[in-house]
Amino acid sequence: MLMRTDPFRELDRLAQQFFTGPGTWSRPTPMPMDAYRTGDEFVVEFDLPGVTPDAIDLDVERNVLTVKAERRPNRTDDVEMQLSERPLGVFSRQLFLGDSLDVDRIKADYDSGVLTLRIPIAERAKPRKITIGQTDGAPKEINA
Fold it and tell me: What Pfam families does the database record attribute to this sequence (predicted)?
């Protein structure tokens, strides 16, 4: 369903583990996600706390879904920052969707900092029955 084709992700993870010693915190992915299939749809959920819905951009080109989000500061310029651990700026992720998904009918909802995408399974990818003719004239159904 969802094709993972980011060859450098594991290399980045290993390099981050190597360069951050024990006891140090590594910065989490600014756009963590879960992806799963339920029934006849594929669901992808992105955690985007502090992002307003108008700062999220979704694009589909061929079978590539791009999610861009901008987390903007919610403070004025006259503050003196003491600690800043929450990443700001524009973040994006690309998902390579398989041919078995119907990219023309993607639905997106945003609630409580979670962007949920629902991607239906394409009709051509769903199981169907095929009738086989027999020489005795009685058709027989099997699952394909």
Answer: HSP20
